[in-house]
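Input/output pair, single chain:
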Amino acid sequence: MNEVNRSTETVTKNTATFSSSLHDDDYYHLTTKTDQILGAGHRESSYLISLPNDRSNADGSQVTLHFRYSKNLNFKRSLVTVAVNNTTLGSKKLTAVNANNDALTLKVPKGTSLGNSFVVRVAFDLEMNDQSSSDNSQTPWAEVNSQSKMLVKSQRSNDLLLTNYPTLFIKNETYNNIAAIIPAKLTTDDFKTLTNVFNLIGSFAKSNTGSIQFYTKQPHKQTLANKNVIVIGTPENNTMIKKLNPHLYFQYNHAFTGFKSNEKLSIEKAYGKTIGTAQLLRSPYNDKRGMMVVTGASSQGVYLASTQINFQKNIQQYTGDAIVVDPNNAHYGYRFKKNKAIDKTLATKRTFSQHSQLIIYLGVAVIVLLLVGMATFFTLRKQGLLEKRRTDDK
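Output:
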C-alpha cells in the first residue's frame, strides 16, 4: 500500500505478488547468488547491510553463513572468519568432512553499535599442502551461497539530539506525521530555508505516502501534541516563535530584536541580530516528541541556520541539540539537555535490558550476602545463648 495513493486496492488470484528475496522480516541475505572466492592465502568478501534510515541495530543480531570449499586444503591451517565492520564475530576451522556443505552461526556481541548501515566481512584463509608447487590460480576455492543471511534485530533511536536528526521525523522510511509552522508570506530567503530543511528530510524518505501538513498560524494544542513539529521563521513573521521563546535554548531579548547571552555563549547585542539558530527541543506540548525550531531575528538569519541542516555531511558535524550560524559562516554546536532520551521510560527499559545479566548477578550477590549475614547472626546468637547457659549452670 506504500506504492498507491488510493484508499483501496483489489488483490485477486491473478495479481502478481512476490516477496522480496533480499529482505524477509528481520533477515537480510548477504548475496543473491553464489559468491566464489578463488586462490590461496587470505581472501575476503564484503556484504553491505542497510536498514531503514530511522532504525539502528539492537542486541540479538546474528550472522548465519552457508559455504563450500575445495578438498585439497591443508585443513590444519585453513579457516573462515566473520566480522561486522571492525568487530570480529568468530572463526571456524575448515574440515574435509564438511567441505561440500558447511555452515556457521555467530552472534553479534551484546552492546555492539552498528548504526543503520554496516558491512559483513567473510574472510577465508585457504592453504594447500602443495601450495608452493601449484600453478593453478583457480584453486583452492570457496563459495558463499545465497542462503547466507543476517538476522538483524533493530530499534528506533531514542536520542533527542542532532545525531538522530532527521530520522526522528521519519517512520517506516516515510514522513512521520509532520506539522510545519511557517510564515504566511514567504520571502526569497524563506523559500531557500524551506528547501534546505526538507532537502535533508526528503533524502531520508523512500516514499511519499507520509503526512506533512503546513500551517501559517499556530495549530491547536492537540495537533501540536500529536505531530512532529518543525517551526520556521522570525518572531515578526511567525508568532509561534514568540510563544516558544521561554523554551528555546537561545532566547530572544525582550524586544525580540536579537538573541541574548546564555550559559553557553556570550552574545554581543548587534551580533545577536545577525545570527540564526537551529534548535532541537523537547516539545513543550508532548514530552515524548521532539520539535525543530529554525529561527533568527531576520529571514537571512533563519536561512543561515538552515544551511547546516540541509545535507547529511553538514548535520554530521553536530552531536548536541543546538546550532548557531553567523553571516561569516562561522557555525557552532552546543548541547543543553541533560537527558537525551525522547521517551525516558523506554530509555530506562532499554538500560535494564542491556544490563539484565549484570542486574541478575548483583541480585544473586545481594541474596548471598543476606544469607551469610543471617547465618552469622544466628551463629553468634546461638553462641551467646550457650555462654549464658554455662554461666547460669555455674
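Residues 189 and 345 are 40 Å apart (CA to CA). The two ends are 94 Å apart (CA to CA).
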